[in-house]
Design a protein that fits this description.
Layout (H helix, E strand, L loop, with lengths): L12 E8 L3 H12 L3 E7 L4 E8 L2 E8 L5 H9 L2 E8 L3 H10 L10 E2 L5 E5 L9 E5 L1
Parallel strand pairs: 1-4, 5-8
Antiparallel strand pairs: 1-5, 2-3, 3-4, 6-7, 7-8
Bound molecules: cobalt (II) ion.
Length: 141
């Protein structure tokens, strides 16, 4: 039986699945060649030290992510863990409310308050420690 995403869930949709890669052009080429998937948006997020390329998959995105500087958290991630799944972004109606819900539940957060993300979104990250090993991004469009 499939659980329904009822009115009670703060997570409304999967916004994106983010994959950390060393060579953004090579990764884009892979998805184009193998799956015929095209990039619909590219953006450098200077504050995070990353460049991202978004590939649309239905109503969600695959986000290919590469560091733009050595001090970027994604650079440190690549060094420690190598390429692969980096985080999952969930759409929420209200980022501040969802972040507060995590705090109220005793969860660890990376961001203390919502901040600007790419594509004009408002985002906040939840620490993987306390979230069963997955870095979670709360995305408000
Ligand atoms: Co993200």
């Amino acid at each position: 039986m499939r659980a329904q995403a009822g009115a009670g869930s703060l997570l409304t949709e999967i916004d994106h699945v983010a994959i950390a890669v060393r060579d953004l052009e090579a990764a884009i080429g892979y998805y184009r060649t193998v799956f015929g998937a095209e990039v619909v948006h590219r953006e450098v997020v200077e504050s995070d030290g990353v460049e991202e390329a978004l590939i649309e998959v239905a109503d969600s995105y695959l986000q290919l992510l590469t560091p733009t500087r050595d001090s970027s958290p994604v650079a440190r991630y690549l060094e420690a863990k190598g390429e692969g799944l980096h985080h999952v972004g969930y759409r929420v109606a209200d980022c501040a409310a969802a972040l507060q819900a995590v705090k109220d539940a005793g969860g660890r957060t990376i961001d203390d308050a919502p901040r600007p993300g790419s594509r004009g979104t408002t985002v906040a990250f939840v620490h993987p420690k306390g979230a069963f090993g997955t870095l979670i991004e709360l995305v408000q469009e």
